Amino acid sequence: MKVVILGCSLVGAEVASWLDSDKNEVSIIDSKESSFSRLPKEFKGEKILGMGIDVPVLAQAGIEGADAFLGLTNSDNTNIMAAQLVKQRFKVPKIIIRVYDPERAKAFGEMGLNIICPTTIIAEKFKQFLL
């Protein structure tokens, strides 16, 4: 499977590493060179330095042949904008993004984007623990 990941955050690096070790074709995009240091030394995927909402950067990462796109930056706006671009322009079949703001997560989920909201998930876990 060909996967493009936007954001070499802790989560992005972990997912990229897992996918790479499972023999998938992985490209990871980040705007900071230092973020790639989160990847293990044995990572064989492609590291792309740039903004993930720029079409040439996405093209360099192989978005046109991608099976999946993951938006895992720490910026809700960037993840949402990139997901909309990838969905509308490149027709990537599987798209999922992280959105911290629960209201935005709900709104964009209702618009058809696949969202994971860590804020809501963690709050629910705390409620379960307390109850």
Task: Give a structural overview.
By secondary structure, this protein is α/β, with parallel strands linked by helices. The chain has a single domain (2-130), classed as NAD(P)-binding Rossmann-like Domain (Rossmann fold, 3-Layer(aba) Sandwich), CATH 3.40.50. It has helices at residues 10-21, 55-60, 76-90, 102-110, 118-130, and strands spanning 2-6, 25-30, 46-49, 68-71, 94-98, 114-116. A six-stranded parallel β-sheet has the order 3-2-1-4-5-6, with helices on both faces. β5 (94-98), α4 and β6 (114-116) form a beta-alpha-beta unit.
Strand segment count: 6
Number of domains: 1
What is the number of helical segments per DSSP (H or I, 4+ residues)? 5
Major beta sheet summary: 6 strands, parallel
Q: For the CA atoms, what is the radius of gyration? A: 15 Å
CATH class: Alpha Beta
**The CATH topology is what?**
Rossmann fold
In CATH terms, what is the architecture? 3-Layer(aba) Sandwich
Output the helix-strand order.
Answer: EHEEHEHEHEH
| Share of residues in helices | 40-55%
Quote the distance from N terminus to C terminus: 41 Å
Net shape: globular
* Mean pLDDT figure: 96
| Order of neighbouring strands in the sheet with most strands | 3-2-1-4-5-6
What percent strand?
15-25%
Task: Output the CATH homologous superfamily.
Answer: NAD(P)-binding Rossmann-like Domain
Low-confidence stretches: none
The assigned structural class equals alpha/beta
